[in-house]
Specification:
Elements lengths: L2 H5 L3 H33 L18 H7 L1 H31 L6 H18 L11 H31 L1
Helix pairs in contact: 2-4, 2-6, 3-4, 4-5
Length: 167
């Protein structure tokens, strides 16, 4: 038994932690993309408002907004599409970093994959709470995706640290 295996996990266990962690991170990233797709669908549907936002949070719908101000409706639609694009793009970038970098034991990829959604969530989430837009239907899906992603990031980090200690 070598010093690296007696002090910690075997290379096979380390590789498994990296694969499992990167897989969960990629699954979370795919959910971010899916949430972006929902923004696009709802923007062009009668729902118009974001997932989990309804009459309890906003007292008008698509028709009333369009009647009140067509340009405001266009502005809101453009914001929906911009948010959708940034959600999907972040998910895509994070997924690639996790699958092709973290899975191969690249610490820089892990840092990038974790930093991007942390920054996005740190900017986006606080604005939901003062305006009572923090419904379970609205933020719940992104919280679930984040929990999956964080579980993967922690598992991958264990593998990365074990790999660095052994090597």
């Amino acid at each position: 038994m070598t010093a690296s295996t007696s002090a910690g996990s075997s290379p096979q266990q380390t590789a498994t932690a990296l694969r499992m962690g990167a897989g969960l991170m990629t699954l979370g990233a795919a959910a971010f993309i899916g949430y972006g797709v929902l923004f696009v669908i709802r923007n062009f549907s009668d729902s118009f408002l974001e997932l989990g936002i309804g009459p309890g949070e906003v007292d008008v719908g698509k028709t009333q907004i369009q009647s009140f101000s067509p340009t405001l409706a266009h502005y809101i639609a453009h914001l929906h599409l911009a948010v959708a694009g940034f959600l999907a793009a972040t998910g895509l970038a994070v997924g690639f970093l996790a699958w092709f970098g973290v899975r191969r034991g690249q610490l820089w990829a892990w840092v990038g994959a974790v930093a991007a959604p942390v920054l996005a969530l740190a900017v986006a989430l606080p604005a939901h709470y003062p305006y009572n837009l923090d419904t379970a239907g609205h933020l719940g899906p992104i919280y679930v995706a984040t929990v999956v992603f964080v579980a993967g990031a922690l598992a991958a980090l264990v593998g990365l640290l074990e790999q660095r200690t052994a090597g």
